[in-house]
Amino acid sequence: MLGLTIRWSLADAPEGAEEALAAFVAETSYARFTGMAGLRWKTWRMVRGEWFEGSYVFATSEARDEFQRAFTEGAAESPGSQMIGSPPILVEACDIVAVAEGWDGFAATPRA
Asked: How many domains is the chain partitioned into structurally?
């Protein structure tokens, strides 16, 4: 499986950036990626005051490459960069070695 990680530093983000990011994911970004062609799934992760990250798994290398190309071209103007006040510190393609679903299963939700 084909992964992509996009991470921003929150070290110098303005006050309230974490709440703004969580609201944006719940109100806008979640809907954008739900059902997206070529995408298997996306998760949004954050450690407050440290980093915010999108983790993607794509169905094909073409889908991942095209998304990475388009994102990278406009990374500084992306909503996350605007809320955080800086572009991503990491845009990295990777291989997903394995995925295991636990007993309690997977729950898709716009806000955890």
From this structure: 1
